[in-house]
Design a protein that fits this description.
By secondary structure, the protein is mainly alpha-helical. It has one domain: MetI-like (MetI-like fold). The protein is built from 13 helices and no strands. It has helices spanning 2-7, 9-40, 46-53, 55-58, 61-72, 78-85, 100-125, 129-137, 142-153, 155-170, 174-179, 191-201, 205-229. Helix 2 (9-40) runs antiparallel to helix 10, helix 7 runs antiparallel to helix 10 and helix 12 (191-201) runs antiparallel to helix 13 (205-229). The longest helix has 32 residues, at 9-40.
Amino acid sequence: MFTNFFEGEFWQAFLLSNKFAFTVVIIQLFLSLVLAIVLNENIRGKRVLRSVLLMPWVIPTAVTALLWMWLYQPDYGVLNYILKTLGLKQSLWLGSVDTALTSVMIVAIWKQMPFTTTMLIAGMQSISHDYYEASSIDGANKLQNYYYITIPFLKNVIKSTTLVSIIENFKMFPLFWIMTQGGPINATTTLAVLTYQTSFVSMDMGKGATIGVLWIIFLVVFSRLFNSVFKEESFV
């Protein structure tokens, strides 16, 4: 029983969880870094923009899921309406094996970007302007300042936010359950969804508990490896 279980749906859900978590975090980190750099500059209305930026983060996850389900709705959803207006092929979004996972990824990135961006902005503002002034005297341009000063000083912030984001996305449950419930055809059945389905839908508490224990072990081992590879750096 357990042999077939771990050879099939468990590993599929495990790999899907990893694919979701790492894809979301990589894209989210890149976009957040670009956005943080822009919002850290002296641009007009940046305080208002920072406030607006926080909106996706403060909206409850259930509300976020319902909002995007409406946007993704195949018959009267906004996204398909835009595609139809442009003369492009409409999509099932959450109802297709090819697009369901990507659709949830987009929602996760949209919701979590404010947190990562805020952390990066806070890190940027803690960097002394003396470094930038010294580099300007040496003839460095803005791009060189970002590469040689900003990014190195943000390493610890990036490390912390990346680890937290990976863990959060690996155990993501509300978005998946509200938007897809693991479908279509297990295309979005992550470990979190599989654990819930096994424990509370199939009422197989033994399997559900086993998945949960393995899940915890993986996250603990991953966190230790991550911290050992990306060690804290101190700047004087």
